[in-house]
């Protein structure tokens, strides 16, 4: 594969470095440290840059990895190779424990929470008797293969960089998969992802564990490189530094983590060795410079250095078009014309004293286009949110095919074959149209994170992308398939949302103002598409303000005003209904 | 445990809690107005305390020079931002607040430091110096980032903390210091001994809480600050200068920090890096208050102080572990009580 070439070159260069004649041993030590920091930063890239969860506590996981192997290989004499899986296991399972709490934290509570347990764990490391308190544990055995002991920084160098390159590969594989798309959607908020069946707390926990295991690996290597551990490198300061590394490199990019590690480790070294010459007698000048540089960096290049470097490379040409002959299993459609698909019965939603939806009842039958209209603030979008499980009704009920789904979360609603678009477009702007649309097919794929990392998901993945490509062609955006979603016009983004919703293979499509921002021709195309969908067996419920569009398209219209249903009927009867005219024009007809 | 020890612990907890309450209030204030989670609040504490102690010992504190340096930086930022439309009044005003003021204070500091100033003068100088540092810091570090996300501001805040702590070591050295009592004398009630110092702590804390409450509830500036907190753009549209709001918030926070420092430095020895932990405990309180509620923050701060006092008696080794782990269930409750509204992040 083309994208693998730079990695192979990178691996070859790293492998050759120790053989360069006259390479100062100290540089190898630096490279070891860069590799160790890069591992942690890579986890943070996934956690913070991609998943949007900022952690100040990663150093604690490095500590777990390091202390696990330190205790087991000194007090119990286990071989370091045996302690490797155990170190990863300890970091991973503690990540589950801390993660279960942490990922429930919202907004800025989350980084603060990580800061809190990061500090707490640091004090714990330095107080526990069996971890050697502040002195730590020394005389840790080196890594060895047969009789070859990795005592020098030069010999453990390979172990470290093999770990870095492998982790980078696995992490990138993970990002480029069904699970990866779910993770990348996290940063944009959870409503859109959940509407397509992504279990967001689980996805967050997954990145949390991934980052912790990488940190644990770094800790394990650190313990066998230093052959001694003490609490200092696992404190809050170190946790902050890891975050700094990720931000410097570019928090959204796996290789940004490696780049950031290289820059920060070298910089620290330079500062530590040269600053005392300029400002003699002061111990902590490098932290001053460090802090100032962090602020300056955020002001000048908040995206980090990796994307800045990459912008010098020639632009990637569009990706390969997926093979659309591959098919996903479809939902059986056995409904007759008159059966009721969706029944909303006296649904009511109150926000404090405001009644947004007031005992509204209507239904949607199979193969029918129903429009929900009404002036601004009539409660149309709230009704959508009640149906799709984003909000739960104060009273009343919503049933799908006769089954009540009042308290069901969005992930369950979408499983029933109800998919939606949003009034305010919720796409991931830095993902391609194809990837965005493929999120819609999330529930129709099966590969988990481990399979994705090991690339065992390719057959599954090809089918998902094929489905996505097919739906993109269906809505007429085939030419934009490989563009970033954020680069499209707002009207086109709405159409992308429709393609994403179609990927669910829905029985009922909920469209929130699909025609807003479209030109006349595009509206006609959209109307044709929706009619074709209906004739193919799908039902559509749409909210729309363009009356011409609605009147020509809908089979039936439901009119809301101030949360109350004031009329229902065919377009012809609605047009002449005095209540409706009064609601829209404010005068009695 | 007998009642005497318990009462003693309670008293100790309340004294510390009062300080945490003040710091918590400052953190809430700054966060509400600027969305900055002010990690360097602790540095304001140590700067205030150690500047006071250094002055009282008749030496020259480095913070006065830092204020001037930051002021020059702020002046440069002002000029740079206004480079397209420079006019005389703006330059003069910026130069007066950013250069002339710290220069005068520096001169005063040099003058007084040489002759062991009285307590009141030391306090006044320390407060002014730290207040200026807070003000210019906002201009230099945070104002250019004012439009970014809470997260970017948080990372910047960590950067500022690192720089200030490093500078603290440079100015005050690694040795701890104590300052003279603000109010000497003591009296006993039953088995408890109240020092003038601890009474000062209580008094100032209560005064500040009331003052902040009045400020935000009754004054136009206070209301403007609250408006900025709710909606930056909206506040600007109705003519509130949001940068001014940020400056006022930082000014208040740095004064509160410095005052807290000056109040505790006669009781406890402070080191250049003590502020971080003290600030963080104020933080725990502020977060319990949800970063929005002043009275809840004050109450929570007392709880933090008490937990700390009692855990240092029962499990002194795990004092910090307990205090910080206290935060996790609180954060969890907070998150569950107010589930995240869909946040549109960049």
Features:
heterodimer, A: 589 residues, alpha/beta, ABC transporter involved in vitamin B12 uptake, BtuC, Rossmann fold, six-stranded mixed β-sheet, 54% helix, 11% strand, B: 346 residues, mainly alpha, two-stranded antiparallel ribbon, membrane (chain A)
Describe this structure in words.
- The complex is a heterodimer of chains A (589) and B (346).
- With 589 residues, chain A is an alpha/beta fold.
- Chain A folds into three domains: 25-310, ABC transporter involved in vitamin B12 uptake, BtuC (Orthogonal Bundle); 333-417 and 508-589, P-loop containing nucleotide triphosphate hydrolases (Rossmann fold); 431-505, no CATH class.
- In chain A, 54% of the residues lie in helices and 11% in strands.
- A six-stranded mixed β-sheet of chain A has the order 8-9-10-5-11-12, with helices on both faces. A four-stranded antiparallel β-sheet of chain A has the order 4-3-6-7, covered by helices on one side.
- In chain A, helix 2 packs across helix 11 and helix 6 runs antiparallel to helix 9.
- The longest helix of chain A has 27 residues, at 200-226.
- The radius of gyration of chain A is 28 Å and the shape is elongated.
- The N and C termini of chain A lie far apart (69 Å).
- The mean pLDDT of chain A is 87.
- Helices cover 74% and strands 2% of the residues of chain B.
- Chain B has a two-stranded antiparallel ribbon.
- Chain B has one domain: Orthogonal Bundle (ABC transporter involved in vitamin B12 uptake, BtuC), CATH 1.10.3470.
- In chain B, a hairpin with a 2-residue loop joins strand 1 (186-189) and strand 2 (192-195).
- In chain B, helix 3 (63-81) runs antiparallel to helix 4 (88-113).
- Chain B has helices spanning 3-34, 41-56, 63-81, 88-113, 119-142, 150-172, 196-218, 220-230, 232-237, 242-264, 274-288, 294-314, 319-325, 327-337, and strands spanning 186-189, 192-195.
- Chain B is mainly α and 346 residues long.
- Chain B is built from 14 helices and two strands.
- The termini of chain B are far apart.
- The model of chain B is unreliable at 340-346 (pLDDT under 50).
């Amino acid at each position: 594969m083309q994208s693998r070439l730079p990695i192979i070159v990178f691996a070859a260069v790293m492998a050759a470095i120790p053989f360069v004649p006259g390479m100062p041993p100290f540089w190898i030590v630096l490279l070891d440290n860069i590799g160790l920091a890069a591992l942690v930063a890579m986890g943070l890239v996934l956690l913070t840059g991609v998943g949007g969860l900022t952690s100040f506590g990663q150093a604690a996981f490095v500590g777990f990895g390091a202390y696990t192997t330190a205790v087991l290989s000194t007090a119990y004499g286990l071989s370091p190779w045996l302690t490797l899986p155990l170190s990863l296991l300890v970091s991973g399972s503690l990540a589950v424990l801390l993660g279960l709490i942490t990922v429930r934290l919202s907004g800025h509570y989350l980084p603060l929470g990580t800061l809190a347990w990061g500090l707490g764990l640091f004090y714990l490391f330095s107080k526990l008797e069996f971890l050697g308190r502040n002195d730590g544990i020394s005389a840790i055995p080196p890594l060895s293969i047969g009789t070859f002991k990795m005592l020098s920084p030069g010999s453990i160098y390979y172990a470290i960089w093999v770990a870095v390159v492998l982790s980078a590969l696995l992490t990138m594989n993970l990002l480029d998969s069904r699970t990866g798309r779910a993770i990348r959607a996290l940063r944009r908020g959870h409503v859109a992802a959940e509407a397509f069946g992504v279990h967001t707390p689980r996805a967050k926990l997954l990145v949390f564990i991934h980052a912790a295991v990488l940190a644990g690996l770094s800790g394990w290597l650190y313990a066998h490189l230093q052959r001694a551990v003490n609490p200092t490198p696992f404190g809050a300061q170190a946790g902050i530094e890891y975050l700094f590394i990720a931000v410097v490199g570019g928090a959204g990019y796996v290789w940004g983590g490696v780049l950031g590690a290289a820059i920060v480790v070298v910089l620290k070294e330079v500062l530590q060795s040269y600053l005392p010459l300029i400002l003699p007698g002061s111990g902590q000048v490098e932290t001053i410079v460090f802090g100032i540089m962090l602020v300056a960096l955020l002001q000048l290049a908040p995206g980090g250095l990796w994307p800045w470097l990459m912008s010098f490379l020639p632009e990637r040409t569009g990706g390969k078009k997926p093979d659309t002959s591959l098919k996903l299993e479809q939902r059986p459609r056995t409904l007759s014309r008159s059966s009721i698909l969706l029944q909303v019965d006296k649904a009511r939603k109150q926000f404090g004293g405001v009644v947004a939806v007031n005992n509204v009842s209507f239904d949607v039958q199979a193969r029918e286009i129903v429009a929900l209209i009404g002036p601004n603030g009539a409660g149309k979008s709230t009704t959508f949110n009640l149906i799709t499980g984003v909000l739960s009704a104060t009273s009343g009920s919503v049933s799908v095919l006769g089954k009540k789904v009042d308290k069901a979360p969005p992930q369950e609603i979408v499983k029933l074959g109800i998919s939606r678009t949003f009034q305010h477009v919720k796409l991931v702007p830095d993902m391609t149209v194809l990837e965005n649309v493929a999120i819609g097919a999330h529930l129709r794929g099966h590969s988990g994170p481990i399979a994705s990392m090991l690339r065992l998901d390719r057959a599954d993945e090809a089918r998902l992308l094929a489905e996505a490509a097919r739906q993109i062609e269906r809505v007429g955006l085939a030419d934009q398939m490989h563009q970033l979603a954020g680069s499209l016009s707002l009207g086109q983004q709405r159409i992308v949302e429709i393609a994403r919703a179609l990927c669910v293979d829905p029985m009922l499509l909920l469209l929130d103002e699909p025609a807003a921002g479209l030109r006349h021709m595009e509206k006609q195309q959209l109307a044709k598409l929706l009619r074709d969908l209906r004739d193919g067996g799908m039902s559509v419920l749409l909210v729309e303000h363009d009356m011409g569009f609605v009147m020509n398209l809908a089979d039936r219209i439901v009119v809301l005003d101030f949360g109350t249903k004031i009329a229902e009927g065919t377009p012809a009867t609605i047009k002449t209904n005095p209540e409706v005219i009064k609601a829209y024009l404010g005068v009695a007809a | 445990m007998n009642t005497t020890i318990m009462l003693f612990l309670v008293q100790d907890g309340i004294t510390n809690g009062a300080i945490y309450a003040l710091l918590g209030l400052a953190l809430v204030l700054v966060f509400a107005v600027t969305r900055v989670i002010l990690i360097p609040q602790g540095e304001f504490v140590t700067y205030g305390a150690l500047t006071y102690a250094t002055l009282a010992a008749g030496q020259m504190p480095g913070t006065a020079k830092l204020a001037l340096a930051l002021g020059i930086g702020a002046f440069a930022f002002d000029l740079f931002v206004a480079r397209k439309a420079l006019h005389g009044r703006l330059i003069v005003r910026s130069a007066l607040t950013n250069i002339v003021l710290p220069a005068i204070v520096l001169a005063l500091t040099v003058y007084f430091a040489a002759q062991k100033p009285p307590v009141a003068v030391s306090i006044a100088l320390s407060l002014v110096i730290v207040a200026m540092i807070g003000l210019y810091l906002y201009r230099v570090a945070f104002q250019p980032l004012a439009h970014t996300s809470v997260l970017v501001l948080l990372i910047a805040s960590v950067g500022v903390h690192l720089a200030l702590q490093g500078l603290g070591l440079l100015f005050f050295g690694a040795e701890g210091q104590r300052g003279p009592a603000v109010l000497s004398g003591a009296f006993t009630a039953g088995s408890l001994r109240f020092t003038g110092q601890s009474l000062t702590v209580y008094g100032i804390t209560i005064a500040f809480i009331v003052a902040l409450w009045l400020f935000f509830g009754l004054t136009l500036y206070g209301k403007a600050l609250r408006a900025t907190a709710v909606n930056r753009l909206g506040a600007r549209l109705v003519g509130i200068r949001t940068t001014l709001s940020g400056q006022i918030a930082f000014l208040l926070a740095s004064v509160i920090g410095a005052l807290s420092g000056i109040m505790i430095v006669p009781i406890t020895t402070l080191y250049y890096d003590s502020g971080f932990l003290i600030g963080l405990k104020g933080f725990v309180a502020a977060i319990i208050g949800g970063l929005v509620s002043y009275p809840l923050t004050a109450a929570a701060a007392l709880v933090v102080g008490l937990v700390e006092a009692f855990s240092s008696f029962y499990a002194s080794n795990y004092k910090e572990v307990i205090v910080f782990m206290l935060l996790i269930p609180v954060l969890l409750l907070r998150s569950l009580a107010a589930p995240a509204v869909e946040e549109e992040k960049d």
